[in-house]
Amino acid sequence: MPGPTHVQATINGEDVNFLCEPRQSLLEVLRDVLGMTGTKEGCNDGNCGACTVIFDGRIVDSCLVLGVEIQGREVTTIEGLATADGLHPIQQAFLENAALQCGICTPGFIVASKGLLDGEPGADEGRIRHWLAGNLCRCTGYDKIVRAVLDAGEKMK
Amino acid sequence: MDWIDFATPKTVSEAVELLASKGDRARLLAGGTDLLVQLRGGRRSVDLVVDAKQIPELNELSYSAQNGLVIGAAVPCYRIYADNAIATAYPGLMDAATLIGGIQIQGRATLGGNLCNAAPSGDSIPPIIALGGVAHIAGSNGSRQVAAEDFCTGPGRNVLQDGEMLVSINFPTPVAHSGASYLRFIPRNEMDIAVAGVGTSVVLDASGQNFVSARISLASVAPTPVFAKDAGESLAGKPVSEATIQEASEKAIAAATPISDMRGTIRQRNHLVGVLTRRTLNIAVERARGG
Q1: Are residues A14 and A57 in the same domain?
Q2: Are B220 and B120 in contact (CB under 8 A)?
Q3: Which of residues 63-82 of A touch B (CB under 8 A)?
């Protein structure tokens, strides 16, 4: 059995080096190796979207990516959204629209929404609901989330 | 999940060598949306995962009128529907590529992986079969080609031998006046496994009023995806009409051997095959007429 693998990647714009085992998911690497616990574990099998990150420009479930697969690649997590100037417009819109209750699904929804609004800030309700079908929320009933994303889109135009 | 080794070959021959060295203890990783779930859930155990994504042939996505469509085994769904020329030429494939999982899944999942996973419910498999897709396989004993309808041999099983791998799925160029469609039935709007699914492709004559040929394939109604050959052939040379489409849908039902399970009953699935066959044929006809 060989030892852990050295991986070098860009996470939230920063050059990051870490050691991980090939069997570890990107989600495990983020949370357990790098201590970045903003990305949440929900179902751990690609159904709930709580662990959504942006991987080379596409949203993916980080539970379905191996940590070793991000070698030389770029990942954005929920920790990469706010800046020194304040919250990202999507984060702000989730607060203002009360688009969360327990909060476990929230980072996944916000990162997934960024994946949509960066390219399509004018996305309509139907497009938003379809885009977010891979994110589950058991508290809100989705309506406030969709309104928050519509609101954030207006600010990101 | 026990310890696994991870390899990132850069060529097909290197990958074949790695796979052959471990036999059934090695598995090729494309999008990982099936494999990683199976490994984590203990439904599959391997010693070596071989990443498919750094091999140029497996990343190829090309379409030309001369050579048809080549979808490398590691090409994720989003790349297929992001390509306007391919989306326009193969709307039946787009129907499937845009409804597999959610956006996160489509960012990783591949049609090659869907075919190799050989689930009876694999959404892309009926349109791949209906469109005459051919699996290009590489292995230690050379390469071979297998028609998509002959690829899946049982639930989760396919024709690949130890040391073999899928390189690409190749499709002929659509002929004039042709169209295709895939529909599935699920009780939710998104993110579900088909209770039944039907993929059809048709070729019409220049008038658009008669079938020249048709191919029909079914999901979730047998241990493997089904090629309903008789149902498609029943349309050849017939006029496009409610009666001929009805007859084809009855032959499609005859080709289905569904079971009753948590997702649906035999009776419901047979009914759905009829409904979805008629609907997809009508959509394929509209598309063939340029609608």
Answers
A1: yes
A2: yes
A3: 63-66, 68-69, 71
A10-52 tens-digit pLDDT = 999 999 999 999 999 999 999 999 999 999 999 999 999 999 9
Per-residue pLDDT reduced to its tens digit, B33-78: 999 999 999 999 999 999 999 999 999 999 999 999 999 999 999 9
| Edge-to-edge strand ranges of the sheet holding B48-51 | B5-7, B48-51, B26-29
Separation in Å, CA of A123 to nearest CA in chain B: 15
Number of CB pairs, chain A paired with chain B, less than 8 A apart: 84
B283–chain A nearest CA distance, Å: 22
State yes or no: pLDDT of B291 exceeds 90: no
Cα–Cα distance measured from residue B108 to residue B102, given in angstroms and rounded to the nearest whole number = 10
Regarding whether A71 and A121 lie in a shared domain, the answer is: no
Q: pLDDT tier at A109 (50, 70, 90 boundaries)?
A: very high
User: What is the model's pTM?
Assistant: 0.97
What pairs with residue B166 in β-bridges?
A: B137
Does A28 touch chain B if contact means CB atoms closer than 8 Å? no
For the CA atoms of B41, B42, B45, B51, the dihedral, rounded to the nearest 10 degrees, stands at 0
A66 CA: distance to closest CA in chain B (Å): 8
- Cβ neighbours of A49 in B, within 8 Å: 102, 104
- CB contacts under 8 A, B 66-85 vs A, are 76, 78
Based on the structure, what is the number of domains in chain A? 2
Per CATH, domain B56-171 is 3.60.15.10: no
ipTM above 0.95, yes or no: yes
- What is the CATH topology of the domain spanning B178-286? Enolase-like; domain 1 (3.30.390)
Cα B279 to the chain's mean position, in Å?
A: 19
Q: In chain B, whose CA is at the least distance from the CA of A23?
A: B4
d(CA B232, CA B245) in angstroms, rounded, equals 10
